[in-house]
Amino acid sequence: MIISMTLELKDIPGQLVLALEPISELHGNIMSVVHQHEEKTPRGTIPVQIMFEIERSRLDELTERLEKSGVRVARVGEERLRASVSVVLIGHIVHSDMGDTIDKIDSTGFAEVVGLSLSMPGIEKQSSAYLVINAVSNRELDKALDILRDVAVRKDLLLIEPIRMNLEGT
Amino acid sequence: MKTVRISLMGFGAVGQGVARTILSKDGYLKKQGIDLSIVAITDSKGSDVNEKGIDLESAISRKKQTGTVATGDMSSLDIIRNIVHDIVVDVTPTNIDSGEPGMSNMQAAFGAGKHVVTSNKGPLAMRFSELKESAEDNGLFFRYEATVAGAVPIFNLVHEALAGNTVTGIEGILNGTCNYILTRMAEERMPYELVLKEAQELGIAETDPTYDVEGIDAALKLVIIANSIFGTGATYHDVDVTGITKLTPEALELASQNNSVIKLVCEAVNGKLRVAPRLVPRRHPLAVGGTLNAASIQTDLAGRITISGKGAGSIETASSILSDIIYISRHI
Fold this sequence. Notes:
The complex is a heterodimer of chains A (170) and B (332).
Chain A: E1 2-9, H1 15-25, E2 29-35, E3 46-53, H2 59-68, E4 72-78, E5 83-91, H3 98-106, E6 111-119, E7 127-135, H4 138-154, E8 158-162, H5 164-168
Antiparallel strand pairs in A: 1-3, 1-4, 2-3, 5-7, 5-8, 6-7
Chain B: E1 2-9, H1 13-24, H2 26-31, E2 34-43, E3 46-49, H3 56-66, H4 76-82, E4 87-90, H5 102-111, E5 115-118, H6 121-137, E6 142-143, H7 154-161, E7 167-173, H8 176-188, H9 192-201, H10 210-213, H11 216-230, E8 239-241, H12 249-257, E9 260-269, E10 272-281, E11 292-299, E12 304-310, H13 314-331
Helix pairs in contact in B: 1-13, 4-5, 5-6, 6-11, 8-9
């Protein structure tokens, strides 16, 4: 799961490492850190927004470790996949291991295939699939598309991407 | 009244369209203070030259009856070099291997101090910068609105109306044949091969459709856009091209169920040129149907501007050519 967490650090050197270390120790994958040094809280602490991927079962332990080391956990939330893109694939989709194609996206941790419609007109004929991919942000979405482009070339599938302005959301 | 003398290189569908348009717009042009006089017309069999101005009605009917406009055999290059006139209008057929005869005509025109208006993609897709430099070195106009998207004024829009803007990207539907095929496949759920046959019977697709359906024509137009608007010195080999031959009716159906269409989209963004089938939201202004063309231009000041219209047809193409002729006439 992808977690966004607001931490409050004491305004003394070495605090950020103190906050990030337990995430790595618990095999979390840090995706972004926003350190707002100029925005102190009324308590005199410095808020830091961290986004990372971690196994659900390890979240409680992480919170515990952070609090123990003096880092205040002000907010914990599961990050929704906010960006979305749809693509069409044409070719021998099923026989080129559909599951593997989807896994390539899902295993990134920052994007996943959330919709799939498949049309198979005949055994010998090429199939067509409509895939919806969600990701944390447009940047991750671009990375997911890169992976898909690579998979399409290797499996000889035609990948139909959306027009760019759609990605821009303009 | 300003008399502007023109030679017309090529007298096929587009050339005759230009002649008809100049005839029908005579009153309009005179009101603008412009008297267009065609002093020479050529086709593949010969030429007609009259320094006092050719009677266009009889030239058109002669072409219809005898298959040629020729009354003599003065060559195109001789006409360009030796007959007194202002603008060479080159509407010879596009050849993407040699660029001829358009390339030689244009080079001769600039050498002889004549402005050029053209609808011929070949020379521009092959050697755009060379032609542009040649025009600039000689202080001559080089106008080519009709080379891309027929009647749709992409270059006028960007260079004149949007002057001052920096264009950051362009996406376009620039091949009417592909757009017709994709539109029919989506509407009728027919396979590609069947729709292609239908398009060939209607004269929308050529007997050998390769040039259109493999995205080559669209890529050439994208190259001209990239050169004209971004000045990149790009050639056909810089374009990543995927055609429409592998598209299935099922793919179009799936797109449709999700409120999208699949279009052959030309894209010039971040210095990359790409022609490929793309998903376009159905309500998006680029989602034009039938043989229509469209271009969507992203700019820094004006934001995004999208125009669409007829990408082919002799009178529609003549519209762009006439607009270029009038532009030059006003500035000389």
